[in-house]
Here is the input.
Amino acid sequence: MSSLKAVSVAFDMVTPYGWGTGSCWNGLLSKTSAIRRIDRFSTSLMQTNNAATVPDLKPNRDESLVMQMLTPLLKKIAPEIPPDTFVILATTTGEIEFLQRSVINGEQEAIKSRPDHLLNKIMLLAGTCAGGMVVSAACVSSSAAISRAASMIRSKERDSILVVACDSVSEFVTAGFSSLMALDRHMAKPFDKNRCGLSLGEAAGLMLLMSEERAVREKRDILGEIAGWGLTNDANHITGPSKDGSGLSNAVLNAMKSAGISEKEIGCISTHGTGTPYNDSMEMKAIKNIFGKNPIPLYSVKGGTGHTMGAAGLLEIIIGFETLNKKIVPPTVNLRDTDREAEGWVFPESQFFDSPVTLSTNSGFGGVNSALVLKKSEKIL
Amino acid sequence: MIAVTGIGWLTSKEYGCLISKVNETHEGLGSLYSYFKHKSYFSSPVKNFGRFDAISKMTCFSTALALKDAGISYSSKHKQDIGIFGANKTGCLESNLNYFQDYIESGRILARGNLFIYTLPSIPLAEASIHFGLSGPLLHLLFNEKRIPSLLSFVGDSITGGETPSILAISAEETDAICFVLKQEDDISPGMNVGLQNVIAAAGETYTFDEMINAFKGIV
Here is the structure.
């Protein structure tokens, strides 16, 4: 095993529950969903009127929805970010309003919707000068970005990396998911017998990662470790997951190998858990392939936060660190009647657990799968 | 050490395999799929090729050429632990415009799922991974400088870091595309290949696609 650890020294986020990690954590523990009626565009011809939107965001010409989320987060954290920090942005649609306006009003600003333009704005606000890149892998984007950052730190290529993730609920994506008939008319119900689709959500988050050596040298608080990662592809279907879950199983196996741990050390699992019949079933198969008949608690946040697309992975990693520090597995919001496949694994109530290791998984269109092993900071232990 | 064992490229008029020194003209991208099937660059029909967006088609053409150049046979049924990373100039901007224009022109009644799916820049890579049976990591990247050298360097580091033994690095636009097969040097069968650093250096000194191909011809 490499001795170079990638550790998180700062994180923050805004979710449909509000600003800060605490509001999301408390929202999940309250078992109430942040999925609400969409009021920023007409949904009369969409599959649903609902999505998990961030309170008080308003479409306006001067600032995109994602910049309304990112600007306060970046201004708050900027003093902590060293200028030599590399920036990785994860998003699926970024500032898509520019493209929407370009098509609807004929304004020549579609090019401003490109994520590399957003990356430049982020680097300016973060005060960094060491370059950056955009990572895109559908709904795995931000967990893939975190794994790339950890890999770059482990290989000594970089020792300070800021990962930023964001996506907003727009007419562009809501119409698209409606066309795929992928949305629950009311609210997503991950792992429920009656689940019938996902609910879209929006969020933005950031995480500053450093090598453990640099974090200690700079006397940073270490909030947790990205201990291992695995990325695979089903190579099977563009919008549907592999039915046997083998692609995700392989990602989990690769992540455990990368972390140098066995499945016995994992205390709980943050699943992708979108609430679509196929995804949740595939995930249960993938997890049972590895953990056998000995259930460990697993959960999905998406009944509460909605599916925050490119931001989902990072949001779930931050919540994963919270589970380790608080020793609580959050409830799976909107779970009423647990699917038989998930019985004994997923719960509508929070659970206590005591392990310094957790796993976070995501899957996305194109057949992409990601698994990350998260460890509690040894300093906290 | 990482080596490049295959390089496939194409433009609207020509295509080639750099290691095996193939360089041919063609009659246009519109008829290239039939021509590639006839020449056995595709070992089986590419499912749904007709509905692919332009970048997905270019990604599949360049991947077929690069795998042929590297001597790698494939089947969609027998998956191989090969990754596929891509980087291009504008991501999926054109596909985003096509999808949303179509939705607005329909009176905002119903978007078309077939167009929506290509609004993710990683989808062309996924289309290729399905046909060629590539089950390693899949990522689309946008770099804010030196796109192809940055992509090659990133892919090389990912292999060195133990991610997977081989990764394809692809840069596909609507009218030109190039695909590189990268492998660990101790994982290479005897045959032609070129060192990754030489390829990165050659790519870094060029400005146009044609200049880049000519620079690569000079080092293989």
In short: The domain at 226-375 of chain A is CATH 3.40.47.10 (Peroxisomal Thiolase; Chain A, domain 1).
